[in-house]
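Appendix B: complex inputs.
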Amino acid sequence: MAEQADGAGAPPSRRALLARIGAVAGGAAMYQAMSALGVAAESTYSGPIRLEGDPRGASVVILGAGLAGMVAAMELRRAGYRVQVLEYADRAGGRCWSLRGGDRYTEMGGETQVVNFDQGLYFNPGPWRIPYNHHAVLDYCKRLGVALEPFVQVNYNALVHGRAAFGGKPQRYRAINADYQGGIAELLAKATKQGKLDEAVGKQDQEILLESLRAWGALNADMTYAKSLLTSDRRGFERDPGGGLTARPSFSEPVALKDVLSSRLWSYLVTGSLYEFQTTMFQPVGGMDMIAKAMAREVDGLVRYNAKVTAIRQDGNGVSITVQDAGGGAPEQVRADWCVCTLPLSILSQIEMNVGAPMAAAIGAVPYSASVKVGLQFKRRFWEQDEHIYGGISYTDLPIRMISYPSTAYGSPGKGVLLGAYAFGPYAYEFTALPAAERVRRALDWGATLHPQYRDEFDGGVSVGWHRVPGAMGCNGAWTDAKRAEHYDNLCAIDGRIVLAGEHASYIPAWQEGAILSSLDAISRLHRRVVSA
Amino acid sequence: MAEQADGAGAPPSRRALLARIGAVAGGAAMYQAMSALGVAAESTYSGPIRLEGDPRGASVVILGAGLAGMVAAMELRRAGYRVQVLEYADRAGGRCWSLRGGDRYTEMGGETQVVNFDQGLYFNPGPWRIPYNHHAVLDYCKRLGVALEPFVQVNYNALVHGRAAFGGKPQRYRAINADYQGGIAELLAKATKQGKLDEAVGKQDQEILLESLRAWGALNADMTYAKSLLTSDRRGFERDPGGGLTARPSFSEPVALKDVLSSRLWSYLVTGSLYEFQTTMFQPVGGMDMIAKAMAREVDGLVRYNAKVTAIRQDGNGVSITVQDAGGGAPEQVRADWCVCTLPLSILSQIEMNVGAPMAAAIGAVPYSASVKVGLQFKRRFWEQDEHIYGGISYTDLPIRMISYPSTAYGSPGKGVLLGAYAFGPYAYEFTALPAAERVRRALDWGATLHPQYRDEFDGGVSVGWHRVPGAMGCNGAWTDAKRAEHYDNLCAIDGRIVLAGEHASYIPAWQEGAILSSLDAISRLHRRVVSA
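Resulting structure:
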C-alpha cells in the first residue's frame, strides 16, 4: 500500500503538506508579489469579524451546522440577518465530534456501533488537536468559554516502530532522535575537519559550525558521537542516575547512523517541527465537540436538525432549498434571500443545484480523502503505569500507523481510551470494508506489537471510517496543484445568491481553522454584496 | 560574566549536565562494569519502598522537612519507627516552595518582600517542573493525590534573543530551529553529492542519507534549503494560509546558515532534547508546593517547626540534637536512636557535629550554587494575547537569561505571573546585592527588550536569591568531578548513627527526584542496619 512504502512523516502532516504543495506550486509569482507588497500579518485572522452596514432584514439559509455553518449563523445573526440553518444529522458539529459511553453510531451500510467507554472518557473521530497558530479556533474557544488544555504531539518517550527495523522491536523516539542528530553531526564535523567544506564554508564559520555541532549533536571532545554521559543524556540511560549509594548511572549504547538510516525510523522525527504540529498544541477539555456544543448553544433555535437537503435552487429573488425531514413526510421548501452552503463537496456534488458552470465544475472536481480512526478502551492506563508514556504519539509502519495516548487525566487510576489507529488512503477503504468488530480486532493485533498489554487489558472499541460517515462521505477535500489552479477561485466565488464555505474552501484542508476562516471570508464577501446592493 | 560568554544551552540544563559530567568522568571503568553485569532497569525507582523487618521501637530524628526529610518521615513511620522531624522554617517543603499573594518573604540581611499577586496566581522560586523520567516524584504525586498538568518546556513560537544577534531583534524559536536544521542538512547533502563522504558512508547508505536529509531538513528537490512552502511550514509563514479568497499564504525568507551560526542562537535549540527537559514534563496544578503540602499533611504532628538545630552529637546509644526555638527560650536536647539529616551542606557545614573525618570532610567540600529567580505579575497575559506564546521559555543572553510563561490557565482574561529571570553564578550574587525593588526594576528593563509590553503592563514582582534564603543558603550542591570521586561515597555512607540525605547526596543535583531517591536509599540502608543489629 502507498502509505506503507512511504516513510516521510506521519500521515496527517504529510497529507496537509502535500495538499498545500499542490495548492501553491502553480502560483509562486503571485506570492512573491504579495510578499513584495509587505503583507505583514502572520495570520489571516485578526480578531472578531466586523460586518458593518445594515442588511435591512435580509434572510440567509445556511446548509450544514458544522463549524463553518455555525460560525456563519452566529456572525450573520449578530450583523442583523434573519438566519436559519439546516442540518442533516441530529446533532451539531459535523466532523467536530466526540464519542462517549452510550453513544450509538450508524455508518453508511447500516452497521451500528454502541460505545461502551467509561464515564468521562471519549474519543474524537475527527479533529483532535489545535495548533497555536490556528488563531480563529483559539479565539472562538476563548469567546465561547471552551476550556483548553495542552495536547502532547511529540513524546520523546513514545515509540517508533518499523516491521523491518531492529528486528521489529519498537524503539524510543528519544533514542532515534539523538542517534540521528548525533550521527549527522559527527559526519558533518568530520567532513569539516578534513577540509571538505572549505569551498562552502569560510574558516571562521567552520569554527562556529563545529562548536554548534558539538553542542547540538552531543558530540564528545574528539567530535565523535559515542556512548557517554552526553549521549545518554539525550537518548536515555541504561540505568538512570539516582540517589545515595545506588546512584551511579550507566550509559546506553547508541545505534550507528547506518542502522538508523536503514531503519527508516528517522521519518518519524519531522512531525513536531511542522508548523501545525509544533508546541504548544491544544485540545478542548472533555472532547473536541466541546467546541461544537458551545457553538450549538449560541445558535440554539436557529438550527433545524434531521433535515436532508435534496435540492438547491436560486432565482433573481432568492434561494429555495428542498428539505426532507428524517422522520418522513413530504419534502418542504425553505426560502431565503441568500444561501451559505457548507456541505462537504462529497455530498454537495450529489445534490441538484443551479449554479454556473465554473462553480459546478469546481464542486465536482475535488475528491475526498478516505480515513479511518479506531478508539480503544483499556482497563488501565498501562502506557503510563508500565512504560511512562504520558500523552503523545507512537508511530509504526503497520496499517494502524500510530497510537496516540490521552493528553489528559495523567496518572488517573481508572480505564483509559487511546487512539488505536489513524490511517488514510487505500488501507482505510480496505479496513472499513470489514465489520466493525473485526476492525477493532485487527487494530488490537497490530497494536499489540507495540504494547503486548493490549491483549489482557482490552475493554471495548469503536471505529469510524470517514468515507462511510453519513453527511460527510470523506475526511476532507483532497486538492491537487492542478485542481487548485483550475477550480479553487471558482469554488469560493459567490455564484448569484449562493456562497460556499468549509475546510474544502480553504488553504488549510482537514483543519477546523480552514472551515472557520473560509466561513468568515465567505460571509464577509456576501455581506458586502448585500449592503452594497 | 561567565554565563554571558557561554552559549551552550539554558543554564539549568547545563548546570545539571556539568554536575553529572564531573560526577562521572572519573569512574568510567566502574560504569562499564555495571553495564556488563546487565543492569537492565531504566530507573533506580521501582515503586513504593518496602522496609521489611521490625525496628522494635527504634526512634529516629529527621533534620529538615523538605522533600527528603518528609519522605524519610513518612516511610520510616510506616515501617514502625518513632519519628520526629525538626524544621527551621515555619513551613514544610524546603526548596519546594511557591509564593502567592499576601505571602511575606524575609531574606538573609533582613529585607522583607510582600507578594501582591492576584488570587490563584503563584511563582515557584525553587523547582518548577518534573521530567517524565523522575519516577519517584511522579509516584509520590500519584500516591498523595497531587494533580499534575503538562509543563511546556519548548515552545516553537517563543523567542530566542542575543544582544549581538540580528541587531538585537528577538527571533522565533521555530525559525532558528528550521534554519539551523535546514542549513546543516543542505551542507551535508551537498558534500554527499560531491562524493566527499564516499570514504565515510557506503553508496547505498548515501542514498538513504540524502532522502532523510531532504525530509528532515525541509530541502527542496534540488537539495537546497530555500524560501518555499516546505521551509515556511517549519519556520513559519510571512502570511499564514487562510480560507476562501483571502487564503493564499506567502512564504518567509530563511536566514542563511552563516548568519544563524554567528548569531549563536543555535545554542538554545538543545534543551528540549536533554533527558530532563524532553516531553512530556509536568507541574503540579496550583504550584510546586502542592507536593510539599501533600507530604506535610501526611507527616502532620511529627514536625516541629521554627526549630533551629545548633548541634548534632552522637554516642554509642543514640543521637542528641540541640534545638533552639525561633520564639526564644533555652536550647533543648532532642534524643533519638538514629538521625537522618537532610540539611543542605551549606547549613550543615556550620553546625557542630561529631562525625568521622571522611564525612566531615565531605560536608565541608561541596560549595553551593548561587541562583536567582524573579517572578513578575502583569495586568494581562499579553504574551498570549499579542504574541500567541502559550507556555514555554524564551531565551536571551541578557542577565535575566530566560522568560518563562505560565503553563496553565491558557487564554484566561485576568492577570498573569511569569518567570522574569533565572540566572546563576556571579550574576546571581551581583543581582541579589541590590535591594529587592531594584532587582525587579532591572528584570523589567531587560525583559522589555523581548516584550515591550512589560512597561505598561507591569503589576508587581518578587525576587528570590537562593544563596540568601535562610535555611538553604544556596540553590544546590555544586559537585565537581574531583569532589565526587573523593567525597561522594563518604557523604552518603552511614556514620555511626547518622545518615545524610538530600539532592546533594544524589547524582541528580538540584532536582526533587535526587532528594527523594537519596532519602529512599539512605533510609533503606539505615533500616537494614537497624533490623540486623
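The first strand of chain A starts at residue 59 and ends at 63.
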